[in-house]
Specification:
By secondary structure, this protein is of the alpha/beta class. The protein has one domain (about 1-224): TIM Barrel (Alpha-Beta Barrel), CATH 3.20.20. The chain has eight helices and ten strands. It has helices spanning about 10-20, 40-50, 70-85, 100-105, 125-135, 150-165, 180-190, 215-224, and strands spanning about 1-5, 25, 55, 85-90, 95, 95-100, 115, 140-145, 170-175, 195. The strands form two sheets. The chain has an eight-stranded parallel beta barrel, surrounded by four helices. The chain has a two-stranded antiparallel sheet with strand order 5-6. The longest helix has 15 residues, at about 150-165. The protein is globular, with a radius of gyration of 16 Å.
């Protein structure tokens, strides 16, 4: 099972790599759900590890954008492409509806870069219909979702349903408040092939603490 670790410093990236992470999501302001990081940080992380990087492209802590933000988002997407990032992470929703036009306006600035549609997906009234629409955009190769929240068993069942709906068209990346209990269940049931982790990869299970190589290594052992 692939493990993607959220990082916001070079030290985080170094520890995640030592622990056996497969991919990194690079953000700033992790307490706000992750915003676009600086490109000095991206370059510094690239100098430290060869792991694939998915870069957050997001200007506010909500799940919607506005016309004033679009130019900055487009510049960030272009910079990610120029930096050779593995992909960008983006997503917008308005009143429970997929704001796909806004996503397309941004990713058009980086036409060759793969895209993870992030947890704006979890704000949508009809997630299955959204999977079908997102699957029509060839550049979008993953959806990051918490599986609807709730207890790990409920999440597992909803993640299975999303994977079945996506089929071979998209990957479903489980993430958002993943506890060790949930991670263990995801690994045991193989309801998804990829898991995105934040606090459980950090010392003290705390956003304010750095990524711990030992914690990532423990997740790697569980994942197999």
């Amino acid at each position: 099972m692939l493990i993607e670790v959220i990082v916001q410093t070079v030290a985080d990236a170094r520890a995640a790599a030592r622990g056996g992470a497969d991919r990194l999501e690079v953000v700033r302001d992790i307490q706000d759900g992750g915003l676009t990081p600086s490109f000095d940080l991206i370059r510094a992380i690239q100098a430290e590890t060869s792991l694939p990087l998915r870069i957050m492209v997001r200007e506010n802590a909500g799940y919607a954008t506005n016309p004033d933000e679009i130019p900055a988002l487009r510049r960030a997407a272009t910079a990610c492409a120029a930096a050779g990032a593995d992909g960008i992470v983006i997503g917008f929703a308005e009143r429970g509806e997929l704001a796909l036009d806004d996503v397309l306006r941004v990713i058009d600035a980086a036409p060759d870069v793969p895209v993870t549609f992030h947890r704006a997906f979890d704000q949508l009234a009809d997630p299955f219909a959204a999977i079908d629409r997102l699957a029509q955009v060839s550049r979008i190769d993953r959806i990051l979702t918490d599986g609807g929240g709730g207890d790990p068993i409920s999440r597992t069942e909803r993640l299975r349903a999303c994977v079945a709906r996506a089929g071979a068209r998209l990957k479903i990346l489980a993430g958002g408040g993943v506890t060790e209990e949930a991670f263990e269940l995801f690994a045991r049931t193989r309801c998804v092939a990829e898991v995105h982790v934040g606090r459980i990869a950090r010392e003290g299970n705390d956003w304010d603490s750095p990524v711990s190589a030992a914690r990532v290594r423990r997740l790697r052992q569980i994942a197999g």
